[in-house]
Amino acid sequence: MSCEGQVWFPLLLQYEKVWSGRTKIYGQDLVLDGDGEIQKKLQDYVVKIVKALKIQFGPCHAKVMIDEKGPVLIEIAARVDGISSVSLEEQVCGRSQVQLTIDAYLCQNKLKELPFTYKRKLFAKVVNFISHHCGVIVSENKLQEIKALQSFAGMRTRVHTGKKLEKTIDLATSPGFAFLAHSDSVQLENDYAQIRSWEKEGLLFSLK
To answer: What is the per-residue pLDDT across 85-131, written as a single tens digit (0 to 9) for each?
Structure first.
């Protein structure tokens, strides 16, 4: 987030891609702590880019790859993340991209009181659903059972009963995604594994 050339970080995500057929697709987005050696390298790099592009006010979404040679910019745009969740971000990071965007334009003094980055309060991730089957959706019973998982923090779907479900080959054919957050990283991973198990068994949706 930028305001009068000063930059703040509301969220850092580590993307994980997995193979689906012959293509790699988004599998999960891990919420990183705002502090750390790698995080600092990424933050310093992105700040330089934001200033070079003269993004003075508002949000900025950057995708960066990093290895032993250092960070490399993949893409950048003056926008919030496409799957931004205000409630999840405030619960996990104590701030959100949307609120900081509002503050950058309307409440600049409030924004300037915030620290440069955040301290992660909970372990969290975004789970991009992967469909291994195709057909017309008859029911969404198991999909609803995700809401009963201990780490469940929200969900958005792109398909519903009566619509055709395609096999996931890219982000556009993913049925949706779930937000998971918990104080116990083991519980978080167990719930993630449960979702993936239901997917492989074709149980998230009943098809015909």
So the answer is: 898 999 999 999 999 999 999 989 999 999 999 999 999 999 999 99
Determine the Cα–Cα distance for residues 104 and 1; give it in Å rounded to an integer: 8
| Prediction pTM value | 0.91
Question: What beta strand segments (E) does 68-175 contain?
Answer: 70-77, 123-128, 135-139, 152-157, 164-165
Q: What is the DSSP string of 151-181?
A: TEEEEEES--TTSEEPPPSSGGGS-EEEEEE
- Residue 11: CB atoms within 10 A of its CB come to 26
User: What CATH code is assigned to 123-207?
Assistant: 3.90.1170
Max alpha carbon distance in the chain (Å)?
56
Architecture of domain 2-10+34-112: 2-Layer Sandwich (3.30)
Segments making up each domain of the chain, as ranges:
2-10+34-112, 123-207
DSSP 147: G
